[in-house]
Amino acid sequence: MDGDRRYPGPQVCREHRGHSRRCTGAVLMISKVGVIGAGSMGTAIAQSISRRAGEVIVFGRRQAVVDSINRDNCNSRYFPGLRLNPNIRARLMGDRLDVVDCAAVVIAVPSSEVRSIVSAAHEDLAGKFLVTVAKGLEYPSLKTMSEIIRDETGNPNMACFSGPTFADEIAYGHIAGATIGAGGDPSLRATISDLFGEFILDFSDDIRAVELCGVLKNVYAIGTGMWDSVYSNHNEHYTFLNMCYKEMCTFLRAISLDEGIFTKFCCFGDFNLTANVDKSRNRTLGLMVGKKIVKTPYLESGVTFEGSRSVKGIIELAENHDIDMPIARFVYDVLSGNNNVRESVDGLIRKAP
Ligand SMILES: NC(=O)C1=CN([C@@H]2O[C@H](COP(=O)(O)OP(=O)(O)OC[C@H]3O[C@@H](n4cnc5c(N)ncnc54)[C@H](O)[C@@H]3O)[C@@H](O)[C@H]2O)C=CC1
Ligand SMILES: O=C(CO)COP(=O)(O)O
User: Sign of dihedral through CA atoms 283, 231, 324, 315?
Assistant: First the structure.
């Protein structure tokens, strides 16, 4: 695809008051932003932000990807057909990260990698405005990404970005909504609204609840894939989808401080996107396991299946709140090879709420 024809270069932005709307105006010159992770989401976020910032530095661990971005304005591994904006530069990941003059740093690596990366670079990241897009839960600590990052850097200025946001569609500039989980500091919201001004944004003060929505929806995407590998009718699909959403809302009512979380992009939007669309890696994993196309070595496939890594933690977190999560347990049991899908699905139907 041709270069990003919409790239007008950084321009002055009108004040973005941070309420839920797509910033259609030109953009504020945000000096420099760092993105940790040169995978699909890191590259996509870099492309979006590069239309609003002076420069975006992407930190990747593969020299070939770094070279491809710097030499050809292209991430040949993830988006071979997309010309990246010229103000995106790549650097090879090291323990230390040269983010000295970055106004903000986005963390876009798989959740399993966040603690090691942030711990190694904690001195560089301390005091920075940090945004995590990773959708995972650390085990056995049961900590979310922002909790890990705060552990390692002590940063109070933290936010998360989560919603129905397939990376490829972001990279090609399609409309997407996302929830910003951040403390109530107005200046923080203004900064993040400028950074992610291409998105339709809603906000929540409960960053942990926003992050847990992203974790839960991956689990239910796997579960829906498994269910759909057995039942192929519309009634059956949407009946199970409703069962999943009911279980997810039961969990959120127990842990969320934000009573409006249920209708935010991180919750209803991302839950439906990932559970219903085959582009989702988590849903695809559920379909493949359900059809016995793949067995447990999928974790060595190199594909980022966040839901399979976080389902055990979600079950334990729920137990800590005396919440029963039969569908999350169904997903865990099948992924663990304990039962086959049809037996487990029939069991779910008998116990349906
Ligand atoms: N791909 C998508 O559509 C979306 C992904 N996300 C989230 O973004 C996070 C990142 O996932 P994706 O970009 O999708 O995965 P990906 O598999 O496309 O890319 C992951 C990248 O992280 C890099 N990486 C892994 N370990 C690393 C390390 N120790 N140091 C430096 N780089 C390392 C890999 O080399 C790869 O480039 C996940 O938590 C995912 O849930 C969120 C929304 C959408
Ligand atoms: O989080 C995502 C979309 O919002 C990406 O979903 P998958 O990780 O299932 O591909």
Answer: negative
Instruction: Please tell me which residue in 128, 143, 217, 264 is annotated as part of the active site.
Output: 217
Per-residue model confidence as pLDDT tens digits over 125-170: 998 999 999 999 999 999 999 999 999 999 888 999 999 999 999 9
Is 282 close to ligand 2, i.e. is its CB under 6 Å away? Answer: yes
**Known catalytic residue: 217?**
yes
Å from CA of 43 to ligand 1 middle? 9
* Site to substitute for ligand 2 among 137, 212, 282, 311, most atoms within 8 A of C-beta: 282
Which residue's CA is minimally distant from atom 8 of ligand 2?
281
Regarding the beta carbon of 274 and ligand 2, being less than 6 Å apart is answered yes
For 159, residues 6+ apart whose C-beta sits below 8 A from its C-beta are 129, 130, 131, 132, 146, 180, 181, 182, 188, 192, 207
Taking alpha carbons only, the member of 168, 176, 106 closest to residue 134 is 106
Question: Angle CA(160)–CA(187)–CA(190) in degrees, nearest 5?
Answer: 65
What domains are defined for the chain? 3-205 (3.40.50.720), 212-351 (1.10.1040.10)
**Nearby residues of 350 by Cβ (< 8 Å), 6 or more positions away:** none
Q: Is 165 close to ligand 1, i.e. is its CB under 6 Å away?
A: yes
The model scores a pTM over 0.90: yes
Predicted ipTM?
0.99
Largest Cα span, the chain: 59
